[in-house]
Structure formats: structure tokens, C-alpha cells
Amino acid sequence: MEDSVQLLADYPSGVRSLASLTIDEAKGLGEEALALAHLAARGVPLAEGIIVSLRGDAPHRRLGEAVDQIRGRGVRLVLSPLFPSRAVGARFERSSGFRVELARGDDPAEKLADFLDAVATTEVRAALGGALGRLSVRVVVMEEGAAGRAASADPVAGDPDEIRVWETAANPWRVDRRTNRVITEGEGRLDGFAASTIADLADRAQLALGRPAEVAFCRSRGRYTVSGVGPLAIRPSFTQAPFRIVVLVAPDEGTVAPLAIDTLDKALREDTPANDEAAVRRIYARPYRRLAAPRRAVERRGAGDPVSVARASLRAARVAGDVATPLAACSRFEQGLASR
Fold first, then answer.
1. What does pTM read for this prediction?
2. Which helix (H) or strand (E) holds 224?
3. What does the pLDDT look like over 16-39, one tens digit per residue?
């Protein structure tokens, strides 16, 4: 980080250091830049690089001069746009030409021209309100090593105690949040130590932002660092298991993230004998108590239409009348036995 801060003094106006980005500097650069600044403020290591604003005069020249100043640091430079909001960025997430790599020996002028042509389309300008001034460019200095993404929770099942780390087009590593140990090995160039290190970055990002997060990681400044961050989209799924009754047993501490149904089901699964004492679990800082219920009662619950109190009382009276005569006969029989 010292090198990045030292370089900042020589950057032209409109250029900021990524690794030392402050919250005040990021406020005008968009939602992702602000989230990265919050990570930096909490000590999460960010990749070396720069953020170049396209606002003002001669943005093409400003970008070219800034790139020239950091060329030769690392193995390659990776350029990508920083949109003012996640909603705008999601529209162009899969657009071609929005991610450009500059390796040593490449002609930067040609690569930068292709990149700016890709982001200066009519569609992008319209999404930005008619001009490119609201757009910034992130330039990340990457070193040799794996790069990819990590999710602070299972993005498929929503399990809050499982962190996933993966390289592009590779099966993910599954890491237990509580112990930071690998549950299942993945594919690619990562090893167990690297997967655990990156999982820790994802977990720290979630703690800093107060919500589940998905981070982009790479090797920079001699270590694994965060180069991008966004909210984690958990796909809801459902379970066929019997439902359970849960009761909030402590003051509500606020929702950190929406819970998928099967996440709640898994967290409250009956992994103890049915006659054991009630268990207490915590999900995203929300404590719940499982109320044990006979399986037959659980299966019957929910069958049939709702019944009003008056109708239920009438039915109960009819049942009482039906059993009154047999109960009276049994009572007389027992009294007769006792008198003999």
C-alpha cells in the first residue's frame, strides 16, 4: 500500500489509488467504489490499481497517462468499468469488450481504444443519462496467480456457514465459515491454504458491509486481495422435508439477509433425538428455538380448511356427547368391580 500511496501524488486529476481509496473519495464514484472504500476502511486488503474518472476534459488522455504510470507493475493490467449503480452495471455485466487485459509487450494505445469504444456505445450513454462523465474505469495490477470470485454464503442453498471460492469455469472450493477449514476441494490453481485465505476475505467483506457479499479476488502486492465487490444473489430453493415450528427467543436484531426456506430448514434440522430438549440455533444474528412436536401432529397440521372458533366449539360439543355414554358405562362397570 505504501507504493500505491506514493504513486498517488504523481497521478493526474481525476485519478484515485484503488488500494488506499477513502470513503470521501468514493462517494462520487458509484456504489461498488463506495463498498470497496468501506472494505479498505475496515482493513480488508484491496488490490493495487487506480480508478480513473471519465468526467471532464480529455478523459481518453487521462486514462492513457494513468495507465502508463503503472505499466510494468505486476504481470498484467485489467481494465473494467465502474458504473454509478449496480442496476446499471447489471445491464452490461456480460457485454463483450468491457474487460480488457494489458500484458507486458501489448500495445496499450490499441487496447485502450478498443476498451473505450466498447463502453462508449449509445446504449451505455443512454443508461448513464446521455454522457460518459458518470462512468469510471478500474485498472487493477495483477500478479501471477489465481484469480476468481468468492461468495460469503452458499449462493445455491443459502447456507450461511459455508463460503465458496472459485476460479472462472472451475468447480468451487467449499470452506466452513466457523473453522475456516476446507470442506470440499475445488479445481484450478488454488490450494487449501489459498482457498482458506480467500474465504477469510469474503467473510471479512460481509462483516464490513453488513450483508452477504460476492468478491472478486486476485494476487496483488504479494498476497491475495479484493479487486471488486457486490451483493450476493442467493437463489431461493425449497425443501420437501416436514415443516418445523420456530419461535424468536431474543429481541430481533434486524435482518442481515433474506433466508431461503431450505436454509432455515437446514439450520433447524432435527439432528438430536425427538425427545431431547429444545435446541437453540442462531441464523445471521437471529436466534430461534425449535419447538418439538409429534410427527403425527405435524403431518396433520395444515390439512383441511380453517375453522372458526364457533364451529370448532360445536364440533367439540358433539364429540363430548358421543363419548359421554361409553364413559358413563365404563365408570359404572369399574364401580361394580370395586364393590364385589
1. 0.65
2. strand 223-231
3. 899 888 999 888 888 999 999 999
